[in-house]
Amino acid sequence: MTKTNTRSTSHKPQHSGSPRKTQLIKFRVTPEEKRDLEIMCEILHVNISTLIRRSLRSQSIKQTIVVTGGGEEALNILSDLLGQCGKIGSNLNQLARHFNSGGKDSEQIRAQVLSELSALTRFRLDAEKKMGELYGNHQAYKLEELRSNSA
User: Fold this and answer.
1) Confidence (pLDDT) at 50
2) What is the rounded CA–CA span in Å between residue 151 and residue 148?
3) In the chain, at which residue ranges do the beta strands (DSSP E only) sit?
4) What is the pTM for the complete model shown?
5) Confidence of residue 62 (pLDDT cuts 50, 70, 90)
6) For residues 48 and 37, what is the distance between their CA atoms, to the nearest angstrom?
7) What pLDDT band is residue 87 in, cutting at 50, 70 and 90?
8) Which of 69, 89, 124, 132 could be bridged to 140 by S-S, CB 3.0 to 4.6 A?
9) What own/partner pairs with CB < 8 Å and gap ≥ 24 does 141-145 have?
10) CB 140 within 8 Å of CB 128
């Protein structure tokens, strides 16, 4: 009669709700494939197991933005600045709604509002780009696409 060993191989407690990972898979890759995997894991800030598991299940792999410069103070300043831009944009939208619904205006005021909206949009895109560069997420807003579409 054979005896089955049921002793746990891990000293870590099991996460509730997720099955314990007990199977080990090894596979060979070329040096280039290994480098590609390592680069992708570094960019996404996940380990190879997580990358492969999520890819296998077609789950989205959320990128973690890592602060690379400027620190928390710069992030707070930029965040406040973008918030102020949003408030200004909201006020400009209220003015535009007023003019579009038959409110009194002049061509000069209308041109000024459009000019300010355009300047605000350019400023916001530049601020988002700088924030992306500062915090390691250069493609966060696909700024090149937005600029080429608006030009």
Assistant:
1) 84
2) 5
3) none
4) 0.34
5) low
6) 7
7) confident
8) 132
9) none
10) yes
